[in-house]
Structures are given as C-alpha cells and as structure tokens.
Amino acid sequence: MKIVTVVVPTYNEEKNILNIYNKVCGIFTEQLSNYQMQILFIDNASVDGTRSIISELCERDIRVQAIFNSTNFGFSKSSFYGLSQAEGDCAVMLYADMQDPPEVIPQFIAKWEEGYQIVAGIKSKSRENKLLYFFRNIYYNLLAGISETEHIKQFDGFGLYDATFIKVLRRLEDPLPYLRGLVAELGGKRAEVEYTQERRKQGKTSFNFMRYYDFAMLGITSSTKAIMRMSTFLGGIMSIICLLISVVTLILKITNWEYYDVGTAAIIIGIFFVGAVQTFFLGFLGEYILNINIRVMGHPVVIEERRINLKYHDRDIID
Questions:
Q1: Which residues are CB-neighbours of 158 under 8 A, at least 6 positions away?
Q2: Which residues on adjacent β-strands are paired with residue 118?
Q3: Which residues contact 117 (CB under 8 A, 6 or more apart)?
Q4: Residue 186 clears pLDDT 60, i.e. is over it
Q5: How far apart are the first and last CA of the chain?
Q6: Are 144 and 151 contacting, i.e. CB atoms less than 8 angstroms apart?
Q7: Per-residue model confidence (pLDDT) at position 29
Q8: Angle (deg, nearest 10), helices 179-186 and 209-223
Q9: What is the pLDDT of residues 42-54, one digit of tens each?
Q10: Which of 35, 212, 223, 293 is the least buried, fewest Cβ under 10 Å from its Cβ?
C-alpha cells in the first residue's frame, strides 16, 4: 500500500489543527482508502496551544507525526524542511489555514498515478482580499517576465511531490530555499490542478507587509539576475547621457559666456534623478548581497527541538 504524507506547516494555528486533521482523515477514509495516510505537522515555535494539540494527536494516532522547531525560522524554511522530511511515496503540502481545499488531494493523487512527479495546485480564483490577490497577480506576472527559469503563476506550494523529488530537496544545501523556484527548475514531469482559494475561516494570519516583502525579495533574488542586469544597462545609458549633456552644456557656456545661464533647476533635477535611480538599485543590490551572505554562512534550514512518530534521516542527526 502506497504511503501519502500530508505536510502541514503551523504557527499559532490552535483553532485549525483538529479541523484539518478531521478533514484529511475523512478524505482518506472515504475516497482514498487504498492509500496509507500520514500527517506531518511542522510547527515553527508556536506560542499558543498548537503544540499541545499536535502532541495529543500524535499520542492518539500513530499516523500523526510532528517536528517542533527550536525557534521561528520563517515560513519558507519551515515549509521546505517539513517537506524534505516526509517519509511517504509522495507528499502533499497543505497549509493549516485551510484556504487551499484538502478536497483537491484526490485529484493530486490521480495525476500522480498517471506518472507526474509534481502536481501543482493553481489558484484560478480566490475569495481572499481582492486587493491582495491583484498585487499578487502582478508580482507573479512580473517574476515570470524577468525570471531566467519558468515560473509557475498562482502557485504557492500547495500540491503533491513525488518521493524522488523530495530526495532531491533533501540533498540540497541551501539555507535559504525558494520552493516555488525549485519546483519549476528541478521538478520533473508536472501537472497542474486548478482550484478556488477560500478565505481563512478560523484564526488570524501571521502574515504582514514585511513577510510578504520577504517572500517577494526571496523570489526575485533567487530566480533572476534581470534587476542587476537592468541596473548595469541603465547605469551605462545614463552615464553616456550625462556625459553628453555635460559636454554640450560646457560648449554652450564657453561660446555664450555672458548670455547662457545653466540654471539651478536643471542641476537640482539632474542630481535628484540620478540619486533616486542609484538609491533604488543600491537597495536591490543590498537584497542580493543579503541573500548571498545568508547562503555563504551555511546555517541549517531549521534546528529541531523535538520530533514525534518520525524517523531521523542519517544526515539530519547532529552529533
């Protein structure tokens, strides 16, 4: 019997743990009884009752597994690490807020049985905040346009991953993994399943502007060099233009010394325009350097505090 591991990243999701457990168990009992189910919760140092509820489930049901991180390592790292630790023949990434419907899991598995290594859930519609969905769509289109590799639009990681791909993730030594980019770049044969994203029904999201910004910058700096190339080209063009203007201005001033007034407005506009462009691209350069610095330090993706009902992979054991 094939094993399907459902990976659920959590952070302060005490109101959703039992709901998602009951929902997933019901789906496997009613529609996927010929598969063995595992539910792997990876908790990112929750400060509410999330860990207590998960621990109780692990004691009651051997199919429930848990990894408790020693501190909050961020959503991207925790999700990636949880997926890399899945023991099943395939793993399904499912987020605890249940905005991505578990009811789609049978469709994922059906595609997997057809021979696809990756089955990506694509948000064709969303009932979330319309403004947020609008800006997210703009970001996906922008990233797809400037990325050197294919970028999957409206894909947030919700999907199915074959064990062969999980082994690839496990071998990576990237302390700042970008799962969406890895799926597009390293994933094998891929299928897509469309679904409608629901609103969060219970609990409060921990995402704020800075977390969305982190995701956006991680995606850009991990999958494209276009911004830095743009700064190089634009900088070169601006240098030539500024040089030509300077030469023309000097000639006009020399030939019409008494009558030609350069004017402070032109000088101020030129200085502020060049300064604004330089500041913008220096900010992006800083983002690239920050990511390079984190990767060079080689820190682990996460550090575990405890795991329940789950074996250690050899490379995960720290002496």
A1: 93, 94, 95, 100, 120, 121
A2: 161, 190
A3: 161, 162, 164, 165, 187, 188, 189, 190
A4: yes
A5: 35
A6: yes
A7: 94
A8: 30
A9: 999 899 999 999 9
A10: 293
77 CB-near residues (< 8 Å, 6+ apart):
175, 176, 177, 301, 302
Rounded Cα gap, residues 88 and 98, in angstroms: 22
- pLDDT tens digits along 138-160: 766 666 665 666 677 778 889 99
Which band of pLDDT confidence, cut at 50, 70 and 90, is reported for residue 317? very low
Residue 22 has phi, psi (to 5 degrees) of -65, -40
Tokens matching residue 207? 């995402």
Task: Say what the pTM is.
Answer: 0.71
Beta-sheet pairing, 36-43 with 64-69: parallel
Contact present, 69 and 304 (Cβ < 8 Å): yes
Residue 261 carries which side chain, given as an amino acid letter?
D
List b or e across 175-211, with b for residues whose CB sees 16 or more CB atoms inside 10 angstroms: bbbbbbbbbbeebeebbbbebebeeeeebeeeeeeee
Please state, in angstroms and rounded to a whole number, the distance separating the CA atoms of residues 299 and 126: 36
Between 199 and 269, the higher pLDDT residue: 199
Joined together, the tokens standing for residue 70 give 């020693």
| Rounded percentage of the chain residues whose pLDDT exceeds 70 | 61
Q: What is the pLDDT of residues 9-38, one digit of tens each?
A: 999 999 899 999 999 999 999 999 999 999
